[in-house]
Amino acid sequence: MIKILVEIIFALLVKAFLFFLRIIFTVICFIRKEEKLFKKQSNDLYIKGIHLKKRFIHIDGYQHLITECGNTEASEENTIVMMGGIPTDPSESLYWMASELCRKDKDLHVLILHLPYYEEYSKINLDKNLYAKFNALKLPFDREINLKEINIDPKFSHEYQAQITLKIFKKLKLKKAHFVGHDRGVIVFENLLISNREIFLSLSRGSQVWDYYKDEWSKLAPKICVGPPHRYMAYPYQLRLLFFLITFIKLPFGITEIASHLRGSKKGSEEYDRVTHLIYKANNPTRKYLLKVQQTFMQTDSKMEVLNRKKLKNIDVKMMQFQGEDEFKRASNGSLISDQPYFGKYNLFRNEIEDIYPSAEDQSSVPLKKEYISDMGLYKEIQLKVGATFDKFFLIPDAAHFNVIENPKACASAIYNFINIEFNLDSDI
Fold it and tell me: Is 247 contained in some domain?
């Protein structure tokens, strides 16, 4: 009883704190973006001379956001379809990488598909016959809360999002393309690949776990996060609190190091906009957005996603993984940075790559196995194990989970050069 009372008081205090944070971040975002009151938002964006155009695709009564750049008459081999994740804006998070790809090759056509039904206007429509598949954990005592009598909206499941992604793909009159996902976007594309192998030329996976996961690792959260802490994110206010803490205090773990290497960027620059996006805008989501996130995490967890990937093992499609190099470094306060280790004690990719920090919990505890690392200029490559499913595994410097925002140029180069191996595009690196 006392614990429940403390939980209630804790929740009230957190919500009051987050209310004032919303005011502060709204003002900061307004100032940093130099927005004008009552100014109509443009569907045209320009990043480093590259024109990105936003438009909507109408399917089954919904408008699905598409952002594209490059050559709209491109061949299949030059077409790249991308999808981002959360809690950042799933489209905006990929703008900078899309522009870098189009700068590398004027013949590319890059399309960013918004994470389906996460558009601002879309509504949650609960199905009275469907219920949450997973419970939640409530702070501060990590008490498990039964959600399995709570109704859900199935269109926020990754399986349903994959189905609508296929409809969008066909509405765009595409037949084949290279697919690039980041975070949640990877899982949507994986579900799409399982049932529609014929439309994939390749799949590049950014910041998403693979086929190895131990149940007990979930109990380490939130102090140590091996994979995303789904069960905490099933409560909207907890997601906001956790993201604030890991962004600004780097406790209970760190995940955003962008401010360190982009500190001092000038207003109006691309770097400044990336900091605004990840540090301030991502910390100021609407309640409507957070409730959609809740719907997703009531319908998925890491173990379910890992088991689903067994279906990918025998599919003959080239796959690449790109991870932030700074995963599981130590922050200045001693906390671990990010949530997806690719080495050591909590290695999520032990079936794919050679361990560059064997048995280590962090990057400082044992020497680096340099013989397994190749410097590729803007990024690095880790040697694959015999029998690996992946065709390449790349590390993105100066980046952790949000590598597409922290270092979009390196991500673009890694993706482009991976595609180039198979399709002989003109690479400058």
Answer: yes
**CATH number for position 191:** 3.40.50.1820
- Residues 6 or more apart whose CB falls under 8 angstroms from that of 142 comprise none
Q: How far apart are CA 355 and CA 304, in angstroms?
A: 25
| Nearest-angstrom CA–CA distance, 88 and 174 | 27
Q: Residue holding tokens 């597409």?
A: 404
Would you say residue 261 lies in a domain? Answer: yes
pTM for the model:
0.95
Tally of domains within the chain: 1
In a domain, 196, yes or no: yes
Cis peptide before 236 (omega within 30 of 0): no
| Residue 288 dihedral angles phi and psi, to the nearest 5° | -60, -45
Residues 99, 105, 107: CA angle, nearest 5 degrees: 105
Read off the tokens for 199. 């439309």
Rounded distance, CA 134 to CA 137, Å? 10
What whole-number distance in Å separates Cα of residue 313 and Cα of residue 368? 29
Q: Give the model confidence (pLDDT) of 119-150 as tens digits.
A: 999 999 999 999 999 999 999 999 999 999 99
Count of Cβ atoms closer than 10 Å to residue 49 Cβ: 8
